[in-house]
Structure formats: C-alpha cells, structure tokens
Design goal:
The complex is a heterodimer of chains A (334) and B (277). By secondary structure, chain A is α/β, with parallel strands linked by helices. Chain A has 2 domains: 174 residues, 3-Layer(aba) Sandwich (Rossmann fold), CATH 3.40.50; 135 residues, Rossmann fold (3-Layer(aba) Sandwich). In chain A, 39% of the residues lie in helices and 19% in strands. In chain A, the strands form 3 sheets. Chain A has a 7-stranded mixed sheet, with helices on both faces. In chain A, strands 9-11-10-13-14 form a 5-stranded mixed sheet, with helices on both faces. The longest helix of chain A is centred in the N-terminal third of the chain and has 15 residues. With 277 residues, chain B is α/β, with parallel strands linked by helices. Chain B has a single domain, classed as 3-Layer(aba) Sandwich (Rossmann fold). Chain B has a 5-stranded parallel sheet with strand order 1-2-3-5-4, sandwiched between helices. Chain B is globular, with a radius of gyration of 18 Å. Classes of the chains: A alpha/beta (334), B alpha/beta (277). Chains A and B meet through helix 4 and helix 6 of A and helix 4 and helix 5 of B.
Chain lengths: 334, 277
C-alpha cells in the first residue's frame, strides 16, 4: 500500500481487536457466548476474553478439525460458539468439519478466520488464506463475511451472535479507518455498503481491500476527473444481487477487489451473476468492462501484507491505474 | 423389558435391517448387524431419549460416528416411535429423507454424520456444554474400529480427557473388519485399550452381542470419575446370519432374493429357539 495510505490506516484499530472487544461486551451479557480456540487466543486478541470469562472459553490446542467439531457440538447444545483460528488453517485443515458438522448439520457455529488473506505476509503461503471464499462459496448453508472497517466488524459480530446460522467471518491484523457510507441504512449481511458514488467505474471490494479502493477512487477524481463508485461488499455469500444490478446499470466498468485468489472469490461471484442472472429487463447479460483484482494463481511474492498488496496492484496507485487503463479502452455498449 | 424380550427385539431388528436393505438394494449390512445389539441396549435401557423429550435440552445424546450403519439406527428409532416404520420402505429411494447416512431430516437423529472421524469431536463439544450448564445429560458416540485411523478421533480423545468428560461414553463396534479386509491388515490400531488409557480414558471390554453384559457395563458408567469412558464392544460383522458372519464382502453387500429368504429363515429359527428356551 502507498505510504500515504499506510499512515492514514494507523488512525483505526485492527478489525481483529474490534472483534475481540465487541465479543467481550456481548459475552458479559450472555453466558452462552463461548469462544473456542486452537492455541490462538493470543493471535486472536482474546487473552483479555480468557481472563474475564474463563468459564466461556474452551481451549482445544492446535487441532483445527477438533476445534470445529467441538464447536459444532457446543452449538448443537445451545452455545453461541465462536471458533477462532487462523483463517488459513480453519478453512483448509478443518474444511470437512465446516462442511459436515457446521453447514450440513446446520449447527450455528460462528467461524472466525483470523489473520486472513495475506495478513501473515512473509510467513508465506502456508499461512495465507487465499482459498477460503472459494471453498466456502461452494458449501451450502454458510454466510461468508469480510468486514472492511471497525464499524462493519462491530456490527457483523453483533449480528453473528444472534444469527443462529452457520457463518464465517474473516479479519486481518492491520489498523483500518472507518469508512463513511453514502447511505444511512443499518448494516446487514447480504447488503453491500456504498462508500462512494460515481458513474464512470465501480470498485466492488471486500475486507481490507475496500480502503485502498476508496483511496484509488479519490485519486481518480482528483487526477483524472474519473468518478468511481466504491462498494464494500462485506458479504461474499449471499451476494447482494440487487446492488450489483443497480451498479451495473449505472457504471459501464466494474473492478472487483479482494485479498483472495482471483479464482472462485468475490470477482467470479460477481461475474457469474452479471453474465447469468442479471435481470432481463435490464438488458440481460451485462456487456460492460469487468476486471478481477486479487492474487493471481501463484504462490505469492515474499513480503509484508502491504508489499504483497502493492505487488499485485491492490493499492491506491495500482487500482487507479487499472481503472484508467480499463476506461481508456473502447467502451462497449451497456 | 425382560432379557428375553430384549433378545427378541434384537432378532426383530436384524430382520428389519435386512428387509429394508433388501428393499433399497443398498446399505451397510454387516456393520448394521454388528452394532444393533449395542443400539438395542442403548435405546431400550440406557438413553434418556424418546420422541417426547427429543427437543429437550436435558435429553441424552447419541451421535453415531459410524454413520454408514444407519440402517440399524433407523430401525431402532422407528421401533421407539420417532417415525412410522413404513417410512423405511423409501430408504435410499429418489427424494426420500431416509438417506444412507444419518440425517437430521429424520426425527431422532442428532447429527448429520457419514464422513468418518466426526462423531467424537461433536460428542466432546456437546459433553463440554453439559458441564458448562451443570446439566446431567450424557453423551454417547458409536465409532467403528475401521475409522480409528482418522486423526480427529485422537484429537477429540485428548480434549475429552483434558476436560474430564466423565459424562461422555464412546463405544467402539470392534468387528475387526473394514471394507478392504481385516482392520489388523489395513491399519493395525491394536491395542485400542492401552492407547485410549494413555490418552486419559477409562476403558472396558465387553461382548457386543451379550445383552446382559452390555446392560451391566452401561450401568457402571462412568468407569472412573473425571474420565471419559470407552467401551470396546467385541462384535461379529454380519452377526446373526451365518453366511454373512465375519465375511468382509458383507460390509456393504446386499442380499439377493434367495439370500434374503435364507437369512430371514435363519433369524426366524433363532427366534423360535429363543421362545422355546
């Protein structure tokens, strides 16, 4: 990420920390809230939770399959189980438990993928979760959420606590400033949040990539007189088709942005809708410009999360450049 | 229920298992016959669970990790009145709720299982919840010996002992055969008892077809305060039908008409002998 943005992001808190403090507030009121960890309370910022609510934390040790199975058992017995583990291990090592014990059995476990995406940076691909949207999208009966900022994180945790259905939420470690929405509508799963409105291009981003998309939109306006919409599509599944539809009707170019493989994530979910399911009254399959920004099909370059973002164009300058390049092409009809 | 009535139940269950598998042309015959005496004792003598209290948070839980022998469970649940036995005629048929592994679509089923190594971790979580809530219900999970190489079982075994889950009882249907051959040849997990004991469990062996012995052993739960209990039930795959017993091909073999008739005749003869005793 650009240095200027990096400085600004220091004004917010890490979504992970917000998750922990929000959960502590909820747990103080509801003894059925139980955290299940796999030696991950430190990296999950849950040490204070464990100190305040020792009867509401179950330590499993480093055994993610068991973590999810136990959480499913707790949930089936009425506990609001938050299974907290690094996203990379939680959604790969324990995928069969997520599929069968949580989603298929409809046990309302709140799966919390911490240090998601490339948050672990130079620790390498074993610790990156660039597959989680893809694998979980293909599983029935689970909501997938990546909050962009502290506000979305707080609201998402509050809603997850009362949802009583399987859900996966992922958080990063970086400080994230709050983004203003153009709408006053309350946060809800499955409804994207419009951060900025424009008609030339739309950034549909999720998680920690929303902020650089927003910065890119401001740069495009200032330097190129290009007006960009920015959407925080915090819920990858179920996807906000209504907002996608209206965005496609307004903007002739869409750029999706995600801290995930370009395969199977937010971008392909959007593309699938626009090609197959767009309302025929809006002209059927969309003919606009479309580009997916994410991590290409490779093991990432070594670096910090910021360096990896910059390397793959998930940055203010990278995303602005992608937009300029796209809309300088011959524009097809809507 | 008298010992004789329990024994009659087991024979009746075996006949029904064969009937519905024969009707479906699918099912796990050998394992259903090896575990059905355990289910008989559990549902008729041990578990505090019935159609009336099934939604109560205080009921005992039974989670069948070896989901593939669901036919035995369906037959017992039907007998307990969870659903009309007539429903089992749809077993594995198009659009039936009665699929070839436990599913919550069927009344009386606690968890959707089928992939192996999943039952025990869920049972552990349920038992932890009981401890947290100071509830007295107990949690039982039936495992196959062939699924013991699944690592998640051993992860859960550690957790069960770590949290002193003496409200948890695992039962291993130790019929010594799995789809490829003998468990000893496929992946030898013996000695099972000392392995679990070293993980912090209290372990006892039982003849898994001796109803009296099964009743007695369940009466002694927990085997040790503060420890999860494991019952290694020594069983015979295909038990009750001579030509199926200890034959690996009956893991998921389905009898043809002649075999079906022969099996039912044998079971009827067993019943007659029992009644004459």
């Amino acid at each position: 990420m650009d240095t200027a943005i990096e400085n600004k992001t220091k004004t917010g808190r890490a979504n992970l920390e917000v998750f922990s403090s929000t959960l502590q507030e909820l747990a103080a009121q509801d003894r059925n809230i139980v955290v299940v960890t796999s030696d991950s309370r430190g990296s999950g910022k849950l040490v204070p939770f464990g100190q305040k609510f020792p009867e509401q934390i179950v330590e499993i040790g480093i055994a993610e399959q068991n973590l999810v199975g136990v959480a499913a058992g707790l949930a089936s017995a009425g506990k609001k189980a938050f299974a907290v583990s690094p996203a990379c291990f939680l959604t790969a090592r324990a995928l069969e438990q997520i599929k069968n014990d949580v989603a298929y059995s409809d046990n309302p476990v709140r799966l919390i993928g911490i240090s998601a995406g490339v948050s672990y940076g130079a620790l390498g691909s074993t610790h990156h979760s660039l597959h989680d949207y893809a694998v979980l999208r293909a599983i029935n009966n689970i909501t997938i959420v990546a909050p962009a900022d502290n506000y979305e994180t707080t609201e998402a945790i509050k809603l997850a606590a009362v949802l009583n259905k399987p859900i996966y939420l992922r958080f990063g470690k970086k400080n994230m400033p709050d983004l203003d929405s153009t709408s006053q509508k309350a946060f809800q799963f499955g409804k994207g949040r419009i951060i900025r409105e424009g008609t030339d291009v739309a950034f549909i981003a999720t998680g920690e990539t929303v902020y650089p998309a927003f910065q890119a939109a401001k740069r495009l306006a200032e330097n190129y007189n290009i007006q960009a919409t920015v959407i925080s599509m915090h819920t990858i599944k179920p996807l906000d088709y209504e907002l996608l539809e209206s965005t496609a009707n307004t903007c002739n170019a869409i750029i999706t942005v995600e801290e995930h493989s370009v395969h199977g994530g937010l971008g392909e979910a959007c593309a699938s809708f626009l090609l197959q399911h767009r309302n025929s009254s809006s002209g059927g399959a969309w003919g606009g410009l479309f580009h997916i920004v994410g991590i290409p099909d490779e093991y990432t370059v070594t670096g910090s999360q910021n360096e990896i973002f910059n390397h793959y164009g998930i940055s203010e300058s990278g995303l602005a450049a992608t937009a300029v390049q796209m809309i300088n092409k011959k524009t097809p009809s809507k | 229920m008298t010992a004789k009535e329990m024994a009659r139940k087991s024979i009746g269950y075996r006949k029904k298992i064969l009937t519905y598998i024969y009707g479906a042309k699918a099912g796990h015959t050998g394992g259903s016959l090896s575990c059905v005496d355990i289910l008989n004792v559990l549902y008729n003598r041990v578990l505090n669970v019935n159609p009336e209290n099934f939604s109560s948070p205080d009921r005992d839980r039974y989670i069948q990790s070896k989901g593939h022998t669901v036919e035995a469970l369906y037959v017992v649940l039907a007998d307990k009145g969870f659903f009309p036995e007539e429903d089992l005629k749809t077993l594995c048929k198009y659009k039936s709720d009665y699929i070839g592994h436990p599913t919550r679509k069927v009344n009386g089923i606690e968890q959707n299982t089928g992939a192996l190594g999943h039952g025990l971790p869920i049972a552990v979580g349920t038992a932890i919840a009981a401890k947290m809530d100071n509830k007295n219900y107990r949690v039982f999970s039936l495992l196959g010996d062939g699924e013991l190489p699944e690592g998640s079982n051993w992860e859960a075994a550690l957790t069960a002992a770590h949290y002193n889950l003496d409200n948890l009882c695992a039962i291993i249907d130790h019929n010594k055969l799995q789809i490829t051959g003998s468990t000893k040849d496929v992946c030898d997990t013996d000695p099972i008892d000392t392995k679990f004991e070293s993980f912090g469990w209290s372990v006892q062996h039982v003849d898994g077809h001796d109803l009296d012995a099964l009743i007695k052993i369940f009466d002694h739960l927990p085997f040790a305060n503060g420890k999860p209990s494991l019952i290694i039930a020594h069983t015979v795959k295909g038990k009750g039908v001579s030509y199926m017993e200890n034959q690996v091909k009956w893991h998921h073999g389905v009898p043809d008409e002649g075999q079906y008739e022969e099996a039912l005749t044998e079971l009827d003869n067993t019943l007659t002998t029992l009644n004459d005793e």
